[in-house]
Amino acid sequence: SKGKLAINSSKTVGTAADLSVAYSPGVAEPCLAIKAKPELSYEYTSRGHLVGVVSNGTAVLGLGNIGALASKPVMEGKAILFKKFGYLDSFDIEVAETDPQKFIDIVCSLEPTFGGINLEDIKAPECFFIEREIQKRMQIPIMHDDQHGTAIIAGAGLQNALELVGKRIEDIKVVVSGCGAAGFTCAKYFITLGVLPENLIACDIRGVVHKGREDLEDPNNYLNELATSSKVRTLKEAIEGADVFFGLSVGGLLKPEMLSSMNRDPLVFAMANPNPEISYYLAKETRSDVIMGTGRSDFPNQINNVCAFPYIFRGAIDCRATEINVEMKKAAT
Q: How far apart are CA 277 and CA 259, in angstroms?
């Protein structure tokens, strides 16, 4: 069949008697029970193992704003990952709406259907507002996986790698390249894990995110949270002496000479997809002491949010959590 998904019945409906229980008239009984006691929706329907994978297609992989319809193959793939690793069923829902408030209203209206909502491939900065407002209004767990799933696994990789090279998280210098939804949230999460704010430098397409930069004069610009007082202005300058390079930007950005200027036993998480900021083989050729991870499954040390989101949602839905909070994310890390 076409596409990646199909719907199968979990109950036998081979006879007239079966059909009378699954649908009319028998189906009226659970309807009335749920009306009287809404939490029974988790017992009498699929809600307790059903996740909505919802996107408006404004930031799909490294493809950008390709629209809701073109995002559908990704959302179907996400649903498969939920089933494979979390034993959760999913519906992919592509919403042709780019107005944040209207999108929020649409998603919130879906609460009776799902046990949780996985927001996917929504561009920054709208994604921060959208996730926050949806979680305020809904009583089921919500997670924008591009932000938090990536941050959880990157944080786990960071902690493990630091243990291998004998460095303390409070002593390291970190450079983050790319300040979209994933990059920004990862940077914030690294600070939560113990990286000192003054030891983290974020870079985007304009260079170093620094205090006094023209586009940061707007106090509402989310990048102000990461603005550094450092005098460096380029990625090349920022990475000199750094212990960690974390990339969620564009392929080929990290040059061999930049890697050579990093501290001993550098950690390079080059996560741009499909082409990392520096190739695995070039990084290893440049420095034998580099610990290298990418977002790809065909290289060692894959940093991929599939290691997090199916299990986080499985646990959150099973315990009927109403949100996925920082403590849960740290526990998953």
A: 11
Dist. CA 87–CA 260, nearest whole Å: 44
Q: In the 3-class helix/strand/coil scheme, how is 7-33 assigned residue by residue?
A: CCCCCCCCCHHHHHHHCCCCCHHHHHH
Catalytic residue among 2, 4, 11, 23: 23
Pick the catalytic residue from 37, 42, 72, 78. 78
Residues 6 or more apart from 271 whose CB is under 8 A from it? 150, 154, 182, 246, 247, 248, 277, 293, 294, 295, 303
pLDDT tens profile 96-125: 999 999 999 999 999 999 999 999 999 999
37 noted as active-site residue: no
Query: Rounded to a whole number, what is the distance in angstroms from the first to the last CA of the chain?
Result: 38
H-state helical runs in the chain: 16-22, 28-36, 41-44, 72-86, 100-108, 126-137, 145-165, 181-193, 235-238, 256-260, 280-286, 309-318, 326-332
* 303 Cα distance to chain centroid: 11
- Which amino acid is located at 324 in the chain? I
Residues 6+ apart with CB under 8 A from 296: 273, 274, 276, 302
Instruction: Report whether 195 contacts 243 (CB < 8 A).
Output: no
Amino acid occupying residue 104: I
Give the closest residue to 204 by CA, choosing from 160, 174, 162, 234: 234
Question: Using one digit for the tens of pLDDT, what is the confidence trace for 178-214?
Answer: 999 999 999 999 999 999 999 999 999 999 999 999 9
**DSSP letters along 168-233, please?**
-GGG--EEEE--SHHHHHHHHHHHHHT--GGGEEEEETTEE-BTT-GGG-STT-GGGGG-B--S--
Annotation marks residue 189 as catalytic: no
How far apart are alpha carbons 244 and 264 in whole angstroms? 10
> What distance in Å separates the CA atoms of residue 5 and residue 290, rounded to the nearest whole number?
40
Beta bridge partners of 142: 117
Put simply, whether the predicted model's pTM sits higher than 0.70 gets the answer yes
